[in-house]
Design brief:
The structure holds two protein chains of two kinds. Chain A is an alpha+beta fold. Chain A contains five helices and six strands, in the order H-E-H-E-H-E-E-E-E-H-H. Chain A has helices at 2-18, 32-39, 55-65, 132-135, 160-187; strands spanning 27-28, 45-52, 73-81, 84-95, 100-107, 113-121. Chain A is globular. By secondary structure, chain B is of the alpha+beta class.
Chain lengths: 188, 221
């Protein structure tokens, strides 16, 4: 039995060393509904909305971020518990090293991050960014914070680029929502 | 012969272990800390002076000094070296090159990311690199063409994609494999969790060994 255990251990370690992960691997950790329930466990209603960025909006957002935004359309949710507005939830697809990482950012009515959850991971390596110990760093972040790895966010060793992508994506979600809702309240 | 070797091993095993204890503890603990910096290292909140943030890359482009620290990218256009922050999507700690090319600023990051932006406005965008590139050594311009030196070889940028100019055909040396295994770098990055567990086991072994040593050997004397 002991010999079998040692053999299995050596085999596993050897396989780790020589195994080449497949070129494309999609890991689905949460569906949309599961992710929404996870970040807002007490919510009773999720009101799905589509946000189409106008040229002006996109330009403002890109100026605020300092980098390009590829998408023109985003999906977000207004989240309620009975009649009480709990906040927003936005689905972001942010490019990792080669492929997008899909995650959900829960943002409070005051435009602070409540939670982040990784829904789909498509890279060969770096999926450690889905772990709570990394994602909890984003809690209570707002646009007053840098939200940048090696600044106010510690990256994960072995998931460097994915860490960067998550940080950039969370910041993008904050900028987009704040622009959309502060602009609309300013125009009222 | 075997018995005499065994006798020698028994005699000196404990003392050699005590001698090596500090080294093993140091190696194990630092290894665990470096494998999991997000757990053990506190976030660094930089102040406005870039020279308190480990400035590691400085260059001058078009009469402006650009400076990359661990936390931010800065520029200084004034003679009194007043630096102002530039928005940057990723960690500037990995910047290895910043050049001008075709009216743009182009930045290369060590782990295989290339970004460009127009010079009039900071709007960084990615230039996709081939999938076999995991380390960029430098980027440069020659005859108005953008070049990238990487682990896979020398590439030039043409028609919105990178073309291989000269392949890196260096044989994988035993030394480089040893270095990669020692540092947990590719292709041994997947051993990270195993290395962490083994390091913790080593710390336990050293501490328990020292306890047994003091209990058995020194008390006996």
């Amino acid at each position: 039995m002991k010999g079998l255990f040692i053999f299995c251990l050596i085999f596993y370690l050897g396989a780790q060393l020589i195994a080449e992960p497949s070129t494309f691997s999609e890991q689905v950790y949460y569906t949309q509904d599961q992710a929404l329930s996870y970040v807002y466990p007490k919510a009773t209603a999720f009101d799905k909305q589509d946000l189409h960025l106008s040229d002006d909006q996109k330009s403002r957002i890109q100026d605020s971020l300092g980098w390009d935004v590829q998408e023109n359309h985003f999906t977000y949710f207004n989240v309620f518990k009975d009649d009480v507005f709990l906040g927003y939830a936005m689905i972001i697809n942010e490019k990792g090293k080669y492929r997008p990482i899909t995650f959900l950012a829960a943002i409070s009515p005051e435009f602070m991050v409540k939670d982040v959850v990784v829904m789909v991971y498509r890279e060969k390596i770096g999926s450690a960014v889905r772990k709570k110990r990394f994602l909890k760093q984003f809690k209570n972040k707002s646009l007053a914070d840098a939200i940048q790895v090696d600044n106010d966010i510690m990256g994960i060793s072995g998931a460097t680029i994915s860490s960067w992508s998550l940080a950039a994506g969370v910041k993008k979600a904050l900028v987009i929502l704040e622009d959309a809702f502060q602009q609309s309240s300013a125009s009222l | 012969m075997f018995k005499s070797i065994l006798r020698i091993v028994r005699k000196y095993h404990a003392w050699v272990g005590v001698l090596a204890a500090i080294f093993i503890i140091m190696l194990s603990i630092t290894g665990v800390l470096l494998n999991h910096p997000d757990v053990f290292f506190s976030k660094f909140t930089p102040d406005s002076d870039p020279f308190t943030q480990n400035p590691h890359y400085v260059t001058s482009l078009k009469d402006t000094i650009y400076l990359a620290t661990d936390s931010a990218l800065y520029q200084s256009k004034s003679l009194n070296y007043h630096f102002e922050k530039i928005p940057f999507p990723y960690s500037p700690a990995y910047i290895i090159s910043m050049i001008t090319h075709d009216g743009m600023y182009v930045i290369g990051l060590k782990n295989g990311i290339v970004l460009k932006t127009k010079q009039e406005k900071w709007r960084w965008q990615r230039i996709q690199v081939p999938e076999n590139i995991y380390e960029i050594y430098s980027i440069f311009e020659k005859d108005e063409t953008l070049f990238m030196s990487s682990n896979a070889g020398l590439y030039f940028f043409n028609d919105d994609s990178w073309k291989l100019q000269l392949e890196n055909r260096s044989p994988v040396s035993f030394k480089s494999m040893v270095m990669a295994l020692h540092t947990g770098y590719m292709p041994f990055a997947s051993l990270k969790m195993y290395n962490t567990i083994a390091s913790i086991c080593l710390v336990f072994l050293v501490i328990s060994g020292l306890y047994l040593f003091f209990r058995l050997y020194l008390k006996r004397r």
